[in-house]
Write a structure and sequence with these properties.
By secondary structure, the protein is an all-alpha fold. The chain is built from four helices and no strands. It has one domain. Helix 2 runs antiparallel to helix 3, helix 2 runs parallel beside helix 4 and helix 3 packs antiparallel against helix 4. It starts with a helix and ends with a helix. The mean pLDDT is about 85.
């Protein structure tokens, strides 16, 4: 995962040993997981709200359509969040911080959930 070119350019980032590298990677994963959990919780809230709204229809075709659409949107959001999580871990590992662009991508992903809910 670590880019060896980064070590060649700036030896300051080279780990003293494998334990330090693993510890740093774990910290990066923990920080990226904070972003992921925010998006996942918002996506789950949107899905739950849609299911509660359509729950009154019982087993009617409308209920089935709403349930399937909510499930598909939730899963698609998690796929996007997982990709962004991996990119965030890599960025944190290489630079030690989350860039403004990556933070904005997380915010956009979170806002897209609210926009999708409002569109319904």
């Amino acid at each position: 995962m670590a880019d060896l070119q980064l070590y060649l350019v700036n030896p300051h980032f080279a780990p003293d040993g494998p334990d330090e590298d693993a510890e740093r990677l774990e910290k990066c994963r923990d920080e990226a997981m904070w972003y992921f959990k925010r998006v996942a919780q918002e996506a789950l809230n949107v899905r739950t709200d849609a299911l509660i709204y359509a729950g009154g229809y019982g087993d009617a075709p409308r209920w089935v359509r709403v349930r399937e659409a909510a499930k598909a949107r939730y899963e698609a959001t998690l796929v996007d969040a997982r990709k962004l999580y991996e990119a965030t871990v890599d960025e944190l590992f290489k630079t030690g911080e989350v860039s403004e662009e990556t933070s904005a991508e997380w915010d956009l992903l979170m806002v897209s959930q609210a926009m999708a809910e409002a569109a319904e």
